[in-house]
Amino acid sequence: MKIKWKNIYEWFDSRVQLDDLVHFMGKKYVPIHRHSVWYYFGGVSLFLFIIQVVTGILLLLYYKGGEGLAFESIHFIMSKVAFGWLIRSIHSWTANLFILAAMIHMFSVFFEKSYRKPREITWLTGMLMFFLAMAFGFSGYLLPWNELAFFATKVGTDIVGVLPVIGKPMMLLLRGGEGVTGATLSRFFGFHIAVFPGIFTLLLGIHLILVQRQGMSEPLDVENNSVKEIKTMPFFPNFILRDLLLWLIVLNIIAILAVFFPWELGKKADAFASAPAGIKPEWYFLFMFQTLKFVPSKIFHIDGEVLGIMLFGMAGITWLLVPFWDRKSKLGEKSRLINIIGLFVIIYIIIFTIIGWIT
Amino acid sequence: MKYYYLAICVCILGFIYPDKGMTAPPVNQCLNCHLENGFKEAVLFKKDIHYQVGLTCAGCHGGNPNTDDMDKAMSKSAGFIGKPKGDVITKICSSCHSSPEFMKKYDSKLPTNQASLLKTSVHGRLSISGKEKLVQCSTCHNAHGIVPPSDLNSPVNPRNVINTCGSCHSNANFMKVYKPSIPIDQVEKYRTSIHGILHAKGDLKVAVCFSCHGSHGILSPSDVRSMVYKTNLPSTCAHCHSNSSYMKNYKIPTDQFKNYSMSVHGNALLVKHDLSAPACNDCHGNHGATPPGVESISQVCGTCHALNAELFSTSPHKKAFDSLNYPECETCHSNHLIITATDKLIGVDNKAVCSRCHSQTNNPKGYIAAKTMKMLIDSLENYEKNDNKLINEAEQKGMEVGDAKYKLRDVQQSRLEARTAVHAFNLKKFEVVVNKGLAVASDIHSEAMNAINDYFFRRYGLGIATLIITILAISLYRFIRRIERKNKNNV
Description:
The complex is a heterodimer. Chain A is mainly alpha-helical. Chain A contains 16 helices and four strands. Chain A has a two-stranded antiparallel ribbon. Chain A has a two-stranded antiparallel ribbon with strand order 3-4. In chain A, strand 3 and strand 4 form a beta hairpin. Chain B is mainly alpha-helical. Chain B has a domain at 343-490. Chain B contains 27 helices and no strands. Chain B has helices at 2-16, 29-36, 40-45, 49-52, 58-61, 70-73, 87-97, 100-104, 114-120, 137-141, 161-169, 172-178, 186-192, 194-200, 209-213, 233-241, 244-247, 256-262, 264-271, 280-284, 297-301, 306-313, 316-323, 328-333, 364-396, 402-421, 427-490. In chain B, helix 18 packs across helix 19 (264-271) and helix 26 (402-421) runs antiparallel to helix 27 (427-490). The A-B interface holds A 75, 78-79, 85-86, 233-234, 237-238, 241-242, 244-245, 248-249, 251-252, 255-256, 259, 262, 265 and B 398, 400, 402-403, 458-459, 461-462, 465-466, 469-470, 472-473, 476-477, 479-480, 483-484, 487.
């Protein structure tokens, strides 16, 4: 058996020089310290993305985009296609867990200041992928063409529409017209399965290459501690196997969620029906949605909603550009301000999400 | 001297208690001249109620009735208006008839709201000229020679009112100007009705136009306030037909309204305000109101229950009922007290109507058919209940059973069809309908059971998957530990 595997390996090695890759991975080490656990969330996010791609392709075999077909095709997938219910539930649950894992990964990188030189581009690609993940969520939410999705998309695109100058054209671009119609569904479907995956794959490739090239970032206190020698573990096979172990656990969690809490389809969207009471966006947009609800209608003669959206936009850009304005971390110094900002953001998101959820 | 005192007393008493008969009659010089000249109106006015109570021509025409000088009598300065036209007629009439104080002077018991009722009635709309109202008081009551409605000569007396109303309503040329869609055969139909037949025989207690439509305040039948609006009609009919003393001489029951109110039709119309439910006129006709004949009941009921009537007409019961003089639908369903038809009506137990004629001994064929039909329809009902229960169970388990739930409607439809198919009184035809429902019910049963089984399959599958993943994870963990131990030893 061993000889057989060896033969196969050699067959490939003689063609694509596998030895070089194995050698590279064998030389790569992952630092071991008290914050090492956070390294795994990057891998978990990757694993969840892979599940999304696989289940998304399977759904695509039966899904039909279009106002009169979308809901019916999802209903068909859930009721007639063998294991269709499982695939759809896994896709929906994984979408949410993917954003959660990516969020944890992002905050861990933020608090470890791993974005500092030379990993600015890694941070930027990661952040862009996070924004894309949210866009994936927003566009995918409409695809079943159910009542909740219809009105959530209407509210969401309405918010985009209030932005000065670019708001209205953006809203028209997203909706493919004045209202949320079959044209919106077609666009969102196109974004969800072609535009976003294309960009995401490109960013993911750059991100992974950079991670491999630059290795895992070490926290500042570990890096600055020249007295102690840093413990490491080989990336291959030790770290990869540990990743794999965690992926198995995550897979089991997803399976449990899909079986015990299958994702509901709800009622078919009806543009003439009144919006269901207490309509809310997905949990990862909830803190922004709730904030906009609290903002007064006018602040210093400026429309409160516009101001709120612009503030969130500015906060997002500031967060995105943190490697360039956090000078202390760049110099290898501890930065309490960054920690305070990070904590504030986490507490803000948690509190406003809870308020949004219970009200 | 004695006579002198007596004369004074009489004068005082006469002054204190003036007698109407003692007052001098009003001078009506107009009438004198017009009578002399043989005017028809003047002759008629001599019989007029207004003349009887002492009113003069000037009451309506103005002028000075005290002088025989034509120029003075008919001068504009004396208020002479000549022949009143258009709305002026109603205005003149209502100037007295709408004044309770004025009418009180004549001990009148007449209401004083006729003019206001007329104004808001269908007759109060504008005529085609657009200058006057469609109907004036004189249109129905005449102008000269007006007598009380109780007078047999009055055009609005029950004896004459049919023709009075018919003079316009039976005139196609007149009616098409105002409402082309309205029928003009009301009088003709009325003559064929029980009311009309008795009326022609001189019975003036029977319903005439105003009995159902009212008089001055007549509204369109589509107006919810109308006496003949669908939901008001049963009460309108009941006004006479539930009055046992009024109906005494006609020797017909007076409990129709009471029974109808408790019936499925009455409940639908009077309680649920379902305007598709029949009122009295839907079965008896309105202007041609008459009880349906024994052989035509199924035709009457069939105007709504078309399929049932058609099946019954071709069934063996049609011939049997007609020969036995049984009133078709009424035999099983009653007439005014028609209760909601349930499956209990079929079968051979005490509550079933079939058992009234069919028994094991005197008509075994019908008895067996009734018994089998009951068994079949009960089976369908039980299947439906069971399927419903299974679907609910599957739904509570979070399973998708939308299709099965939708199909359940087909079973309900089959049950409804079966209830209709009963009216063919043909077991084979009935079985076809029920079997169709049973086949769908069986499909639903399988789908619901599959969904429930799938629910357990998913859980068992998850259990097995979890077991495999756990074994894999433990193996992997042990493998990692082994590698790490190996690495440590090498270091």
